[in-house]
Amino acid sequence: MIDAKPRIVQRSLFPAAGLEREVMSQSARLAAIPSERDEALAEVRQLITDLRDAAQDGRDLARRYADVLQNVVDEYCIEFEKRAEAALARLEAAA
Fold first, then answer.
1. Which of 11, 47, 64, 82 is the most exposed place for a label (fewest CB within 10 A)?
2. Each residue of 12-62: pLDDT tens digit?
């Protein structure tokens, strides 16, 4: 972000002292950058972990629903097979 605040530059009789202050000020700003970067990296790592956990939860849920659906289909198939066998037996008996 660009700092739009006006900066007051002091002229010193000892330019080296002003330069030293400026260097120290820049050093303080640069020292803050790695901590922000570390925080951002930690946040990204946490997001990746959360996404992996959510994906695993989704896969587990899909497996459970697939098992439930398979059981329902099996029950219907068994029931219809019984009804079809009974209907076929009635047809054979009538013939």
1. 11
2. 544 555 556 666 676 666 666 668 888 899 999 999 999 999 999 999 999
- Provide the b/e sequence for 72-92 (b: ≥16 CB within 10 Å): eeeeeeeeeeeeeeeeeeeee
C-alpha to C-alpha distance for 21 and 30, rounded to whole angstroms: 14
- How far is Cα 7 from Cα 9, in angstroms, rounded to an integer? 6
Q: What are phi and psi of 34, to 5 degrees?
A: -60, -35
Q: What are the backbone dihedrals phi and psi of residue 22, each rounded to the nearest 5 degrees, phi first?
A: -65, -45
* Three-state SS annotation for 37-74: HHHHHHHHHHHHHHHHHHHHHHHHHHHHHHHHHHHHHH
